[in-house]
Amino acid sequence: MKKIIKWATVAIIASVFIGTFVFLYQKSLPQQSRYETNLATIKDLQKTTIITGKIEPRDEVNIKPQISGIITELYKEAGEMVAKNEVIAKVKVIPDMGNLSAAENRVYLANLAFKQAQTDHERMKRLYNDKVISAEDFEKSEMAFKQAEAEKNGAEDALNIVRDGISLSNANMSTTLIRSTIDGLILDIPVKVGNSVILSNSFNDGTTIATVADMSDLIFKGMIDETEVGRIHQDMPVDITVGAIPDLHLTAILEYISPKAIEENGANQFEVKAAITLPNDVTIRSGYSANAEIVLDGVKGAVTIPESSLEFSGDSVFVYLLTDSIKQTYVRQQVTTGISDGVNIEIKSGIKANDKVRGIEVKD
Predict the structure, then answer these.
(1) C-alpha triplet 19, 25, 30: angle, nearest 5°
(2) What is the DSSP code (8-state) at residue 172?
(3) Is residue 317 part of a domain?
(4) Are 274 and 240 in contact (CB under 8 A)?
(5) Percent of the chain with pLDDT strictly greater than 70
(6) CA 327 to chain centre
(7) Do 328 and 277 reside in the same domain of the chain?
């Protein structure tokens, strides 16, 4: 019994040893690589470039007040249409004390001059009626009186504008009424009733009461790399896709290429603009992100294969042409390539349509 156990143990050990040896030997043998097979096909290729950017109205205007003051009324809201010269808001004037004092002083002096001119004119009129002075002297006094009267009215009007923002001579064009300067859509009203606003001057840009834009005239604005800017030109067709509306494609025409580069993240970029043709039933919001696709080059009826089938060696390009589909054997073949769309590439010579070439390796 002991001998049987002994020989059984030896047999088990020998089996494990032999099995391990066989396993390691099989693992050490070279494995035959397996590859996908790609078919050379005839198709049209286009080389395109994609420009990222956004859609903006061509004309976007910031409406600013002509006087400083406080917003007392807002007649419009963002999203509403507005016509040129239509009132958007009303401002209560807070006059500058220096300007107010100067305007009041001008009124005081103008009244003094007017009273004196009026007295002189009445005196000259009596003398003229008594035929003591000539008509020429009387006309001069009359002219001086009218000038003094005009200066008095002008001074009072100026005081009213400084104090109340309203012209006595043209109340309809009051500077307290903030009007749109164009027809369009109100994109934003960044102020509220009670906010203080200031007019634009050499020291600041002034307070924006509203932003108005013509949303019927839109452009695409983006940046293109310097490596591709030399391949585009004005009047090229552009296909626009909008991120917020995936199924929407808009046609556009390239109308502007910046003559000067802007450095971004270490690369030179050029600004481009394209005029968009907007369908009547489509609504686009200002600031939508979008991609513009421009066709740089194209070829029709080209022999093409996936670009992953190529092998590069120095300045030469090769493919592996299938010679035996059962054993999966290949022959190395030099080819001449053309344009690529990023996935497929044109083969100008070296293989023909329906040839089969080696693709990427298949992993077990």
Answers:
(1) 145
(2) G
(3) yes
(4) yes
(5) 85
(6) 57
(7) no
Are 315 and 254 contained in the same domain? no
Tell me the backbone φ, ψ of residue 327, rounded to 5 degrees.
-85, -10
Decide if 67 contacts 157 (C-beta within 8 A). Answer: no
Number of domains in the chain: 4
Residue 172 shares a structural domain with residue 226: no
Average pLDDT, the chain: 85
Supply the DSSP string of 246-263, one letter for each residue. Answer: EEEEEEEEEEEE-SS-EE
> What pLDDT is attached to residue 34?
74
Identity of the residue numbered 20: T
Identify the H or E element spanning 11: helix 2-28
For residue 220, give both structure tokens.
């695409």
What CA–CA distance (Å, rounded) separates 292 from 305?
27
Q: What is the pLDDT of residues 302-337, one digit of tens each?
A: 999 999 899 998 889 999 998 887 777 889 999 999
CB atoms within 10 A of CB 46: 13
Question: CA quadruple 281, 287, 290, 293: dihedral positive or negative?
Answer: positive
Are 153 and 66 members of one domain?
A: yes
Using CA atoms, how far residue 147 sits from 116, 138, 143, 153, in Å, is 12, 14, 6, 10
Segments of 7-143 assigned E as strands: 34-39, 41-57, 60-63, 69-74, 81-82, 87-93
Domain carrying residue 135? 61-75+86-179+190-199
- Asked whether residue 279 is assigned to any structural domain, the reply reads yes
